[in-house]
Amino acid sequence: MNSKPQHEIAAEMATVPTAKVLRTAIDRINEIILGKDRSVRLALCCLIARGHLLIEDIPGVGKTTLAQTLAAVLGLDFKRIQFTSDLLPADIIGVSIFDTERNTFRFHRGPIFSSLLLADEINRATPKAQSALLEAMQERQVSAEGVTLPLPELFFVIGTQNPQHQIGTFPLPESQLDRFLMRIGIGYPDHDAERKLLEGVDRRTLLNSVEPLLEESTLRRVQRKAEVIRLSPALLDYIQALLHATRSAPWLVHGLSPRAGLALSHAARAWALLEDRDTVLPEDVQAVAPAVFGHRLQYTEDTATDAGLGLVDRLIRSVPIP
Prior knowledge:
Strand content: 5-15%
Number of strands: 9
Number of helices: 15
Shape: globular
CATH topology of the largest domain: Rossmann fold
């Protein structure tokens, strides 16, 4: 790990090209999260696109560690909420407490007021608690005690959830799922990565020695650069064709909304930036489409057992590239 003071590292990174900044960040994260380069890149892509990330997988494959590593490497203010069945909205947003000295109520901000919020095992909380995130994830603000409070500019939610068939889970409603720009999985490590995990130091211990690589101002610069990546009319036609294909597919309950198309365009721009390009290619759209579309589609009963990334790939193959 780099032994330089954080302010020196951040000052150096602020002057280097964006592509090198991102490559360095990915390499640093991959030192902790072994053998999961694509998941790391998709998570960073989601942050660059100003979205929120849902990580769905079985316990123990590194969902929480990935969120903690992103916060540590990127220098983000980090808060974690363990979602449980007795969690209340006030535990997330905050609560007013009576101040006896001033003889008035004072609002004490909850953990949602952070740059990176980890909603750990989000589907173990009741829908009432889950709904506390809806306004924050969409509007980047919180309404409490009749007052609207802005959230940090780099507000980024990472929700982790266990598979729906596990005991004690509450399915996320469609409106909640749609607030997440992407859904990814971690998956089992390959043989070599798993061997390093078994032989090496606990990854959470390594996190303690990670120095922040970036400052929030650098991340904001990267986000702004992604917003001006060129998306040609032909690529917009391609994105619309994908949306229209979902609306006519007999194996889907309903098609995707225009907001899903916006999510795909934002993610494709961010992916192109990760690839050090100033224009979006069809390959960029295809690279992020499974993560953007997978959790937004509802499948008919006869295809439900095959639902997920496989059917999204089938959708992509059915639409010609312009």
